[in-house]
Fold this protein.
Amino acid sequence: MNEETTQISLTVNGAPVTRAVAVRRHLVDFLRLDLNLTGSHLACEHGVCGACTVRVDGNVTRGCLMLAVQTDGADVVTIEGLSASGEVADLQKEFEARNAAQCGFCTPGMVLTSAELLAAGGVPSREVIRDHLSGNLCRCTGYQAIVDAVEATAKSRAAAGAGA
Amino acid sequence: MTPPDGHGEGLVGKPVTRPNVRRLIHGRGRYTDDITVPHMLHAAFVRSPYGHARVNGIDSTMADGAPGVVRIVTGAEIAEICTPMIAVAAHRPGHKSAPQHMLAVDHACYQGEAVAAVIAASRAEAEDAAELVVVDWDELPAVMDMMEALSPDSPPIHPELGDNLCFQHVIDTGDAAAALAAADFVVEHEFEFGRHTAVTLEGRVILADWDPVEERLTVHQSHQSPYQMQDVYSRHLGIPEHKVRVITPDIGGGFGLKINVHGEEVAIAAISMMLGKPVKYTADRLESFVADYQTRDHLGFAKMGVDADGRITSMDFDNILSVGPYTAYIRFGLAEGVMAINCAAAPYALTDYHARTRVAYVNKGVVGMFRGVGVPIGCAVTEVLVDQAAAKAEIDPVEFRRMNYHTDEDYPLTSVGGYAAKYMSLHRCLDACVDIMDYKALRADQACKRETGVFRGVGVVTFVETAAFGPIYYGPSGARVSTQDGCTVKLEPSGVVRCLTSVTDQGQGTLTGIAQIVADQLGIGMDDIDVIAGDSATTPYGGGAWASRGMAIGGEAALQAGKALKDNILDLAASILQTVPAALTLSGGEIRDVATGEARMGLAELAKVGYFRQDTLPAGTQPELMVTRHYVPGASYFVANGVQGAQVEIDVETGFIKLLGWWMADDCGRVINPLMVDEQIRGGIIQGIGNTLYEHCQYDETGQMLNASLADYLLPMAGEMPDIKIAHVETPIGSTELGANGMGESGTIGAIAALWCAVNDALRPLGAQVTKQPFTPEHILDVIEKAGRT
């Protein structure tokens, strides 16, 4: 191997990670190939489809458009970490109830992107939800069930918040 | 108590959620690219940069020494150990196709056709080295236009075939020419349906692992039929079939793309054999655009004759399509044309029909299977003419359809195109769709908006789906396509049930449906049943997933297997309980007395005796707590039908189309799971909308695809898509006890026609009509401008 590498230290799903990575390796290849976190998917690798969506320092990010070396010192959360945290358990239940995932390949990205909108609070209109999800390509569902799932989660969170 | 229809616990018909979707939502899916095995190598392909070229030689000297490279394998080397694909349909006289090597040997016929593979320690290293492979190309003239391809002057892509005509087929029913001449009026239209491609979100992926010690091939592949691929690897690579195992893990979208045989994938298996090591290939998006089998690419010229009473009498439909340089192996791309002319006009009671399809070879990607296979073309052509005829007759298009449908007294019938239907619930679906869309209100809104210069349009169209093809369809073609499916049902010792099915699930929910069907037979709930699929070595042989067969055929096999296990359970229970089987039934996880409903014995207790305490049974008792049943459909195909409605608004200044509403009334026979059916319909409609509004593989005259990236090839995203309202009309008159007729393609089939009709309806006051799909803003403005000039 004459591949140029550099050492990075970061937090992935709450745990510290230190690795030597090829400088040309993008974040999702790093997550999938080096850390075996296969929940983040690659479908275009040019930043269009959103299947590779992860959270970097709290922001939803295209994992294919970021190099792994750029995450040195960063806090990265993938679908595995987000699921384990329970933060989106309610949203995931709504996805299941509506069959808002078919093949499931876009779903981790959809969940992360939806979580970002839901974290902003309130009950967004369907139009706002659709706009927010418009960077995530789904070839199976037709989107309506995903919009329904996000809307229902927002409503139940708002109701729970109002009741608290 | 078990109701008389045998659907004991009533899971069939309920919106049961999918047990196997949870892991996908939690990021715990297992797709082929997620799988790694020891010693695994990676492949990247060297592809033709030309639409048509001769390969004079391949120099891999530089690439051989690149970091991580294990071997460069050329098409010629693959051809030494792997027979080519020859897709000639035995039942279609005159059909011809050249042998297609897994990788091109000396003749590359489309941009992106692979000519060599680089095998390296990582995909990145394989890609690096692929750039160092030097191919000596001679670019040849590319045949790109399908009409030119069919002209006698066109140079044949494969000289040994003589010309570029792949196949032609004519349907002649009655005397269309005379009927058109005698008609009160004739409407006519030209159609262009652009070529597009499936864009499964997960590209094609294969991990082939040849064990040189046991001489055994294990393949993990993102594919819809492990059985088909087991057959292909066995025959083309000369491996005894029982030494080939194909496993299809979670699959990131199929839509028909992944029922095709792509030569690259067979080449990967061959290379694994050459090297004695596992080799993985994951198609990236850029190569998917040029190398995935594509779809559609039709022209149409059609006329419809109508009599003075507003009755459609006749139709003429001339269809031309291009299928790339080869007929797709193993199912033949011919169906795109044959189904288009076969299904056109199917809902209508006309008597005279002439249609011809001509299939041309061109230097574009190969056309394979994709959702709908030709039927959307026949549907759109018919429905556009029907709307034009209604407008000319000054009859409301919904009423015009109602007048011209076959009536209930006509069944069973064969349509003028040869579409055989035991029954179609056309009037009921039309009523249901018009009802949910509030058609009258939409027309009132349209008239009101036009007063203010806003152009809204409404399309209401009728579609048929040919689903679940039977042995009559593929058998005589010589293609080794299994049209039957099987299901094994096993009672486990703790009283729970495991099913193994030959149906595969790419997200449709078919495995959930299988579980519902079997669970109802055995009187258990969803928590007590698990379904396994996608392994050619362990599951019953069958078709996998294609032509909407999952519930129609696989579901019937599951029903019969569940019934057979129930019989065996009751036989054993009767023996234990000293009664007759007829006195017992299954419900709520218990063996119950039929007369009183009283629980006599739990399934767990029965299974315990069956597996561990046979000593307590009368001598000679042989418990059979695992059974397999197969189902071979008797009909050529199952018939589904329905009506779709669309409402659009066209900005006549910009040419943009806004989708305001969408509706569908569907009759797929018995609905096993309305949640799954509705989501299949919605997904199918959105794909049809994408086909019609956005998607287009644009090639230049030299064979370069100009928009081969996801940034340039447009697809429907959430922001532009409508909510879709669905109504079900259930007519379970299929050939099976289950009564499910198939529904996976109906959304796509009808959506394309609905959009053509809605857009034309909006443009009609301007005298403009669309002729070319996708309906780009440019095309909309063009037809408006053209209408303004005339």
Residues 228 and 481 of chain B are 7 Å apart (CA to CA). DSSP finds 21 helices and 29 strands in chain B.
